[in-house]
Amino acid sequence: MTRPAPSPVRVGISHCLLGAPVRHDGGHKLDAELTDALGSRVEWVPLCPEVEANFGVPRDAMHLADDAAAPRLLTVPSRRDMTDRMRRYTVQRLRDLRTLNLSGCVFKSRSPSCGIRDVPVFTRDSNLLGHGRGLFAEAFQQAFPLMPVEDEERLRDRSTRDHFLERVFGYHRRQCREEQASPPPSPD
Ligand code: SF4
Fold this sequence. Notes:
Bound molecules: iron/sulfur cluster
Shape: globular
């Protein structure tokens, strides 16, 4: 009897880190060290919340603003509020990502959409109010609370990177065990 092919270890990644020209100015943030180190071990699942939410390229730069505990996503300097559009996209994208069985995710640091920590939040007058998480990244972590996530800045450290990979593979092994243990779908 042939064994089923092992499922790939899929890891989400902010698309700009793979070199895709998706940033607001049409640029990218290729992190070759990261992609060289992990690219042969995992299958990347690129995501770019701002492009996938149809904000376009190029687009106005954005930042988090107004309330450090519940920040809004605003364009700079025009202060167009993109929060609701980002939230609507996020609900749909998280639903799609559930079907892909990701085992981890690498986010772009300090982005108002993708940052998982230390994202600056500003007052109306552009003074620093505090720090938070990017809107998409925060919703992602709430949807997948146990999934390993990191940002590319922390993964520049070799031991942090190795530890992240260990957690990703451990998470994947658990997913495989759960999949094998779950009963087959009923025929009706
Ligand atoms: S940080 Fe996130 S939203 Fe911004 S360009 Fe990169 S992938 Fe897109």
